[in-house]
Amino acid sequence: MKNKFIKNICCIGAGYVGGPTMSVIALNCPDFRVDVVDINKERIEAWNSDNLSKLPVFEPGLAEIICKCRGINLFFSNNIEECISKADIIFISVNTPTKTKGVGAGYASDLKWIESSARQIAKFSKNHTVIVEKSTLPVKTAETIKIILNSSDDNHNKCIDTDVNQTFSIVSNPEFLAEGTAINDLQNPDRVLIGGDDDESINLISDIYINWVDRDKIIKTNLWSSELSKLVANAFLAQRISSINSISALCESTGANILEVSKAIGSDTRIGNKFLNPGPGFGGSCFKKDILNLVYLCRYYGLNEVAEYWEQIVNINTWQQKRISHLVIKNLFGTLANKRLAIFGFSFKANTNDTRESPSINISKNLLQEGAKLTFYDPKVNESQILDDLDDLIDNNILVYETALKAAQGADAILILTEWNEFINLGWDHIYKVMRKPAWIFDARICLNKNKLEDIGFKVWSLGT
Ligand code: UDX
Ligand code: UDX
């Protein structure tokens, strides 16, 4: 039977990037068949679940797209071999965590998953395949992928044994989606970046996006500019957060108000008002990893001053989390022994269930080390995830609740660490009544109305004020 689709796309990696990105491609390109494959069986089962609240990734708008496309031109499976072999285009969206040991430990990205994906492609692909780097990668990773593809034993054997004419092109097409707004970011991107060596492959990828993105938003560059731009974009974004967070501390010392300062500087169109929200530091799987990657790259090329400049952004981020932990301890009479603190918000930002590098993790660990007992409430993060993230320090000192009120019962203080909208309208009168007095609120996201809470009777610390 003739394939009814004009192109077959395969994506290796059904995670926070692969899942939403491929869903939006499937939605906008009904003539393309999109197969998302993953080595993780449970993850694929979750993507195929009839109960859409069980999807492995929570993203506003995602479930609706899955409903429309799944089983029509969007498929999730563990059939890695088959999907690679029939693909014209393969996106690589596997994770690239920071190396924990060996050369570059603590800075460089671990490319073992990229390498194994490239080996699978070399083994199973047929004819001409365009490989798209979607994962954020160190500059020059495409070179590594090329070497693997061209030298793999499997590839050689296949070319000798059969008439398969296997050729590859590599294109870099970094993701710029932010979790929580991923669907909107993918549907209405500021730009789509495509870097490569040959125009034909670049145009093939560009043809996917022009189904819903204006042509003038598609930026075409060479491979290395594209790979580097992704790291630099994240470094610049993170830099703004560390800058405003460093000033939040100065505001607390001087009597200035960080929200007023943020508004005043952001009104200058040269600075712009986005990404100037002070908070407990940036989290997420990307910012820290990508900056450390950039730092590693600079050191590799002997640019030590440049490396130190960028590393300071991560240092300020860690410092902000420690600073907040110390402030809590200081205000609770210098000790957390026998005190119960309620953590409101565990995801690294609102509207996602992702906890990777969440500031809540480090702050909770700091407080546990001081002897506190912690209770948790997060609208989307489940108990097993929280226990997993605090693994080494649990020791019967942690309880996770399904409502904010229960988590606050008997607590000495509440810490607001994620800016979930629902926190604004909680029944704060009621919450005050069930807490031990003096009842403190530490609002590290400045999302609550301080005056109103003080009128109820709370003692309130608001970041940067
Ligand atoms: C992405 C990017 O790929 C990473 O580079 C970026 O910096 C952060 O976002 P993300 O989608 O968030 O990663 O990661 P994750 O949710 O962990 O998904 C990766 C998936 O790839 C996992 O489901 C994992 O099982 C899968 N995988 C990994 C494979 O299918 N094959 C492998 O060989 C390795
Ligand atoms: C980021 C980039 O924005 C995206 O382009 C890239 O593709 C992946 O990395 P993400 O990490 O999902 O996206 O979310 P983002 O909205 O950038 O937030 C990252 C962290 O910074 C969160 O912890 C968030 O709370 C924090 N943040 C963001 C602030 O503290 N203040 C701000 O003004 C903005």
Written overview of the protein:
- The chain has 465 residues and is of the alpha/beta class.
- It is 44% helix and 14% strand.
- The chain has helices spanning 18-28, 41-47, 62-69, 80-86, 112-124, 141-151, 153-161, 182-187, 199-209, 223-254, 258-266, 287-300, 304-331, 359-369, 383-389, 404-408, 428-434, 450-456, and strands spanning 7-12, 32-37, 74-77, 89-92, 128-133, 167-172, 192-196, 218-221, 340-344, 373-377, 398-400, 413-416, 440-443, 459-462.
- It has an 8-stranded mixed beta sheet with strand order 3-2-1-4-5-6-7-8, with helices on both faces.
- Strand 7, helix 9 (199-209) and strand 8 form a beta-alpha-beta unit.
- Helix 5 (112-124) runs parallel beside helix 6.
- The protein is globular, with a radius of gyration of 24 Å.
- The mean pLDDT is 93.
- The protein binds uridine-5'-diphosphate-xylopyranose (2 copies).
- One uridine-5'-diphosphate-xylopyranose is lined by residues 12-18, 38-40, 43, 93-96, 113, 116-117, 135-136, 285-286.
Q: Output the radius of gyration.
A: 24 Å
Which oligomeric state applies? Answer: single chain
> Which residues form runs of ≥5 with pLDDT under 50?
none
Provide the β-strand percentage band: 5-15%
- End-to-end CA span: 68 Å
Report the major sheet: 8 strands, mixed
Can you list the strand order of the major beta sheet? 3-2-1-4-5-6-7-8
Overall shape: it is globular
Count of β-strands: 14
Bound molecules: uridine-5'-diphosphate-xylopyranose
Number of helices: 18
Q: Percentage of helical residues?
A: 40-55%
